[in-house]
Amino acid sequence: MKRRDVLQLALTAAALAPLGRFAFAATGDAWEAAFLDAMADEPWLLGYLGCDDRTFEAAAEVTGSWPAALRGSLYRNGPGMHSLGGWRYRHLFDGDGLVQAWRFGADGVNHQARLVATHKLERERAAGRRLLPGFGSLPPDAVGVTGADDLNPANISVLPHGDRLLALWEAGSAWALDPKDLTTEGLVTFSAETRGLPFSAHPRLEPDGTLWNFGYLASADKLVLWHFAPDATLKRVKVLDVPRVGMPHDFMVTRHHLLLLLPPLYPEPGVDADTLLDSLRWHSREATRVLVLRKADLEVAGEMELPAQWVFHYGNAWEDEAGVIRFDAARAPDPLLMTESFRELMRGADADFTTSAARPYRYRVDLRAGTAVEEPFADMLGEFPSVLPRHVGRRHGELVMLGRHAGDQPRHDGLDRVSVFDLEREIESSWRYPDTEMPEEHLPVEAADGSRWLLGPALDWASGYSLLRVFRLEDVAAGPVATARLPYAVPLGLHGRFLAG
Ligand SMILES: [Fe+2]
Hints:
The protein is mainly beta. It has one domain: Methylamine Dehydrogenase, Chain H (7 Propeller). Strand 10 and strand 11 (about 175) form a beta hairpin. The N and C termini lie far apart (about 50 Å).
């Protein structure tokens, strides 16, 4: 079929062992060849090489003193397999979801990782090549699609939900996995009426177990809201008409409200584009809208405006007695990291990761006054904000982010530091990673005895292995108390969740 037909269908659908340096021989695909060439000069690109179609399993070698009370599983997800049949994806976000489990138990630290056996991957495995378009990739001779889940790579995050582990994308359904061995159980349908509705990769779990999520239907200008009880049963779903809803990636909850920022990035009707990514337009003169919804009736409580900005991730939101909402986020001036840099990265081109990189910002939203204001709170780059699970939707004392200080010049293009901000005393504590390592999202967690830790996965690209570090949340600057090292490298992932036990 014609390329434009494929895109049109995609838009319609959206509306509803060691990696080894040389695991992939260069083929006729120019992007594959260019990436392998670039990696010879920039070995940190190992993190984005991608794995082949395999399962990872190993006991980690632990050095230091692993906290005895820290038992449970850190589940993570991210784009894992970027190349199949000698053809490489054109965007970082298209790789098949690789779900990992780091398990901390009496027998030490064990690791496992498997690709999610989505409909898409099963069809492509059988064909021995890519068949379906992705967010920013269109393989040669692509086939048509009938719905968003035909394209769903389940590659952004994970969520323990009831007795299942969900692998999450953002434009389609969740995939269910068996948390014990990460085998894929199937596409999730929460109810007959909600079959196929998008379920984003950033649900918010309140301390009492109540779960909220959203989904967007970009070309239909609709926003889906999901509300689950602590026992994982679906309580409410609502579909709202929201003009120019775009592609919000994350959202927030407070005691009484749900919040989304709607940056002015949305598909342009009638654009001649090969992929959904190519159809998006950034409207830099338009506002980023702040949409506040009431939990009680899932109706709009207010809409305010901020200058145009792109935000992938929020730390946390809370509201005071007067109803004023505060939140923090990793704020970028525009979405160029996604629309350009993460595309160029896939062919190893010298992508600029810093110009449009996010910085730590805090916000104040006054519903009664109808105002939203923002300010930076640290002069540095920052991404992957996170807070302790007990603070979700409540006032939080600290915020964890990956960062990069002005003047730091690591031997790779990523962030190189983990920072813990004491928001009340306005102090940043941080630990800088060795230049030969690239940190991934770090999560603050609580052990069964109430002790507080920071879990930090990273890739040692120089030695070719992945690792997981544990820091005391109260003293990250002292460095890790323990490090678990794998005998292999796993592709750099995106998001995770810790399940104590
Ligand atoms: Fe994300």
